[in-house]
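Researcher: Quick one. two chains, 409 residues in total.
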Amino acid sequence: MTDGLNLGYRILDDQLVDVDGRRCGRVDDLLLAGEPGQPLVLHTILSGSGVWHRRLPHWLQRPARRLFGSGVIGQDVIQVPWAQVERFDSVVHLRAKARELGLGKGDDRDFTLFRRVRGG
Amino acid sequence: MLVALVALLVIVWRLAFGVIEKVFGYLGCCLLVYVAAAVHFHPDWHAVASGFVPHLHVKALYLYFVVGIVGAALTPYEVYFYSSGAIEDRWTEADLGLNKANVFLGFGLGGILSVALIMVSAEVFAPLSVDPGYLGTTALGAQQAFGVAGLLLALVGMLFAVGGAAIEAAFSGAYCVAQFAGWEWGKYRGARAAPRFTVGWLVFFLLAFAIVQTGVDPVLLTEYAVLFSVVALPLTYLPVLLIARDRTFMGEHANGRLANTCGLLYLAIITIVAVAAIPLLLITQGGSK
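Model:
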């Protein structure tokens, strides 16, 4: 999208917002793809607690894996193709609905907690 | 205490974010009774003015209170609450002017109130050698000046200031957790659209209630909370400073040279304060020596 973009500064940790304006996750890690000798291309956003341990010091990774998950795709990590990104500013705007991408499952599930309650 | 908790939860549940801000903000202004009381006692203005001249004391206890006052002026949870509140209130560039005024008025008002409280304490409590160690004791200063009306204004002001701070702290905690974990958040979203955020602020209220129920001295607890939050303050302030000077984020509103210099100066001050906080806490045994 932009030359010289600092991914760690501008993209990593940003909130994901779906096409309806719903916050549905965070950019917890990024996958880059490329052939030997070719430039790397930003390929996929990883979102979910299963990748949190990767960014911790080595000695904290094992307890973090136990607490937050070990990175099972579709379970504690959701892959969002970079092609699904509409634009980014202070958050990352997606082209599709959260449910179509498998995001925001926790809020969907816990919605039932307040289904019969008014206000809040 | 349980009644207060339930009342606070009902208010927060039922009212919109903007209404909560206005109700607690405006009624908290009843604390201005202390400014009127400070003037009412006809203080020695020369002595008051001399209090504004900086004096350097190198005693550990004095430095401990310096750390506390600097830390209380800008605590990390306020940064999280205010910045998330900007999203709740749907601020735009059009609100920048109002917010700049808010900074000067808000900090100015807080400073004037602090000075007024010290002046009232000096006039009412110091001659009697009374230590206003309880929050409620300070209300007697307003009563001394204006009778029952003064007492009621001070108590109402305290109720809404403390209640407002409780809401800020609970919401700030929920904002942090929700934003870290990537959940939907925001009071304006409602409980059904942001269920885990809603559970978050409810849990923080209950946690605060449980802590109070242990019988811990709230003033002492606040002192310790301020001291430990001072340690985290540079880590909260630095990202804000970096974003504020970044034109790719802020465009024409990015900090200029003067604002950057002031920002860096403040960063240096709070870094020194952060480094000194824990050693001073230990040396003074929590401000008691």
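The CA atoms of residues 53 and 66 of chain A lie 9 Å apart.
Researcher: Thanks, that's what I needed.
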